[in-house]
Amino acid sequence: MALVRNRSFTLMAFLTLGLGIGVSTTVFSFVDAVLLEPFPYRSTDRLVFIWGTKSFDVRRGLNGEVVEQWQKRSRTFESISVFQINPFTFSLGTNDTDSVQGAMVGTKTFSVLGVPSLLGQTFSEIEEEPGNENKVVLSYDLWRTRFTGDPRLIGRSIQINGKSYGVLGVMPRGFFFPDQYAKLWVPLTRQTGIFEQVQGLARLRPGLTIQQAAAEFEILNNQMMPSNTAGEQSGHPGIFSLYGVVIGKYEAALWTLFVAIMLLLLIACANVSNLILARGVGREQELAIRASFGASRWSLFRLLLTENMLLSLASGALGVGCAYWGVLMLRALRLGDIPRFETAHLNFHVVIFALGVSVMSGILSGIIPAYRTSRANLLVSLQVGSTTTQPIRHRQLRDLIVSLETAVALILLVGAGLLINSFLRMARSDWGFRSSNVLMLDVKLPSYMIWNHRLPRETFVRLNSEAVQRQALFAESILARIRTLPGVDSAAAAQGVPIRWSSVKATTLGVEGRLVTGSIGTWVVGPDYFRTLGIPILRGREFNAQVADSAPRGVVISKALAERLWGLSESLGKQIDVLELKNDGFSYLPEIQDRLQRKDTTIYQDPSAWQRVGGIPYEVIGVAGDVRMFGLQMDPNPAVYVDYRTWRFSLVENLKFVVHGELETQRFGPLLKGAVLDTDKNASITEIIPMETLVENSIGGRGSNKLLVAISLIYGSFSLLLTVSGVYAVVSFGIEQRTSEIGVRRAIGAQSSNILGLVVIQGMRPVVWGLVLGLTCAFGLTKTLQQFLFGITPYDAVTLGSVSLLLLIAACAACLVPGVRALGIHPMEALRYQ
Fold it and tell me: Where are the beta strands (DSSP E) in 662-709?
């Protein structure tokens, strides 16, 4: 058989197609798992999320009572539920390894999703009644691994965070909400969660759209709370499709990668096609002999194409094996928080895809060479033999394929270069804070909160004021223990840290008798916060250990706010008022409530409608550098930092602690947990994570940049390798076919430089034309990468020039190697073949 006789050709073609099929099948495995696998919900296209802001990336909370009012008034939604998107870690025992992540969801959540339980039942209105809230629904994986899949578990009690919870049901395999990490669900009610900081989940009525729902919500929101004329975005809810939130930001990235990988497979097919063309010159005498014995041109065409199909199917088997290990490798790298990414595997769909790609590759790489070889003048080939100089028709076709291959490779390399350049710019960007050698500890506080609104007003205010003080004492006790641990340089507590912010309030300020609004955030932090995170204090000082009880209290403002109000050098000692609409500590005053109900938007510009928070002014004691709290894609907003020990709204469920020093998470984690649990055994640790990891995850999470970069490196390297090997193979086979010609040139006195120049020029000519074509196409095609780029345009001259130069040098090297080898051909030995 021809494939067995020509082993070097067969091996090169086998490896080229096998790697191309393997890489494409690997990427399709993730496309299938993430994008093509149906969601585990009923009519997913009708499910939406509701944030407290119209910004897709800023998922600000809503008031649960407002959501309940929307449910009563809405005509576009069948039902609405609430949940909290913040991660919750639940301990199933005394061992840390028994801790799992879960979610707090409203009792209607499972019915809104339209997913019944596999065993038992899900939440109902019964769990909203006080005393019935300690119920739990388990995921299938947790039920199988932690509880051995025991069906008798339904109705029994298990220990969660030291409390007894009755198991209501088990969800089906593959179910996830709100993300793939949640392994159990507990009810979110006024008794169990922060009902003022929830997100909404809703199901549209059949035939209605998100745009119709958004228009209705705008009307309902204006009826319940007039629009803020200052343009504050936080006052308007945003509605987003569940698919768009969970998968949408990764969809374009995965399809872009898939298209890039299929282009890479085309390069592999072009390489094999060129190899077959070069080999076809040597087989013309064989085919002429077959024709002389009566073989038709159709039978010769069928023979050549069948040989190539056998080769591609064998390569497909290699590709499936490569894909198996490729999927395992990418899953192990954990390149992003893409839902269902870890479920990718070689299922039936993927194997069928690999088979289809193998057949397609066999046809694409073999049909043109088979046609051209079978249509050759076989009589001339039989008379002259196969050792003549290669026919010009073959050389032109091979050059054309090399040009197209080079153009596609250039486009892929430019795309990979832009993504890598963008990622490096993100990694080197100034966040405004220090992430190295800083650990973040997220602590779920003991039940200090008072949510019973039926209490007398004075009692409610007093109890919550006492709870705030207990919370501050709790934080200070933990910090006192942490600061004594070996290796700790500094530590601080706050309601939120960069990237992992949990509580930020759009603030209205009073400055010298005028109202100041417009995306000003209030950040509640403690002493040493700026020093621990390395946020520079440009003027003045940060909060110290002493608490000032008399007015004015100290406040630190950001550089952006200082320059907006007075200028950086004039800010210290200035007084500002942090304002709120007039209230009695429990509800708005009647005249304020009346104006809100009448949708009197002038209230937001009326200084008489506002009062100082806490009844006292603040004095600027320091100016801090600007911080990108929400990630690199958003510019730093003007910010006011207040001391949580003097801020009466510091009542939250979770506090963040940041610790700086020479710390190792594995060694230092148990010490931090001990410091918390020794202070109060009812507290729990939600997360311990290095700030560097948070930064890396933030870079990787947006548009799946880490995944794009990782696979860009793979297909960029493969495209360069395939192109160089293709050029090398064409030039090498060309020299083999032109051995006698080179011998004649050497015999009549041609210099080595002339021979080498001839080989390189003829080998580089199609490469140069391919570069021109590739650059022309790249200007249009790379525009599709705009949404994935940061700090760089799709037409970056440095990237385009560098990639072109790299490809040019690599191709030149691929021509030089066989060219140098051609210089060793002895004239007499070459002429012996003539």
Answer: 684-690
Is the pLDDT reported for residue 345 higher than 90?
A: no
Which strand (E) or helix (H) includes residue 678? helix 665-679
What is the band of 87 on the pLDDT scale with cuts at 50, 70, 90?
Answer: low
Give the tens place of pLDDT for each residue, 621-673. Answer: 999 998 887 766 667 778 889 888 777 655 566 788 999 987 766 667 777 87
In total, the chain counts a number of residues equal to 834
Q: How many CB atoms lie within 10 A of CB 68?
A: 14
3-state SS assignment for residue 485: coil
Other beta carbons less than 10 A from residue 95's beta carbon: 8
**Quick check: helix, strand or coil at residue 470?**
helix
Please choose, from the candidates 245, 231, 691, the residue with its C-alpha nearest in 3D space to the C-alpha of residue 496.
Answer: 691
Q: Which of 458, 443, 467, 445 is nearest to 649 (CA)?
A: 467
pLDDT for residue 503 is more than 50:
no
Q: DSSP class of residue 630? A: T
Q: Tell me the helix, strand and coil percentages in the chain, rounded to 5.
A: 55, 15, 30
Q: What is the dihedral of CA 570, 575, 578, 580, to 10 degrees?
A: -130
Percent above pLDDT 70 for the chain: 75
- The C-alpha atoms of residue 566 and residue 649 are separated, in whole angstroms, by 27
| Top-confidence residue, 159 or 371 | 159
User: For helices 705-737 and 392-427, what crossing angle results, to 10°?
Assistant: 160
CA dist., res. 555 & res. 543, Å (int): 8
Both tokens assigned to 135: 């119920």
Residue 695 makes CB contacts below 8 A (sequence gap 6+) with 431, 435, 499
Say what the pLDDT of residue 816 is.
81
HSE (side-chain half, CA atoms, 13 Å) at 236: 17
User: Which of the 8 DSSP states describes residue 670?
Assistant: H
Can you name the residues that pair with 83 across neighbouring β-strands? 105, 199
Element (H, E) at 524: strand 521-525
Burial class (CB in 10 A: 0-12, 13-18, 19+), 100: buried
- Dihedral of alpha carbons 105, 110, 115, 117, sign: positive
Give the whole-angstrom CA distance, residue 203 versus residue 49. Answer: 9
User: 239-258: per-residue pLDDT in tens?
Assistant: 888 888 887 767 777 787 78
* Residues forming a β-bridge with 618: 553, 576
**Residues 677, 662, 545, CA angle at the centre, nearest 5°?**
60
CA–CA distance, 373 with 572 (Å, rounded to integer): 85
Using CA atoms, how far residue 277 sits from 284, 370, 392, 611, 697, in Å, is 11, 8, 12, 84, 48
Q: Say what the pLDDT of residue 831 is.
A: 55
Token pair recorded at residue 782: 């790379």
Ramachandran region, residue 80 (left: φ > 0; alpha: ψ -120 to 50; beta: rest): beta
Alpha helices in 189-296 (DSSP H): 210-224, 242-243, 249-292
**The model scores a pTM over 0.70:** no
The DSSP 8-state label assigned to residue 391 in this structure reads: P
Output the six-digit token pair for 111: 């019915």
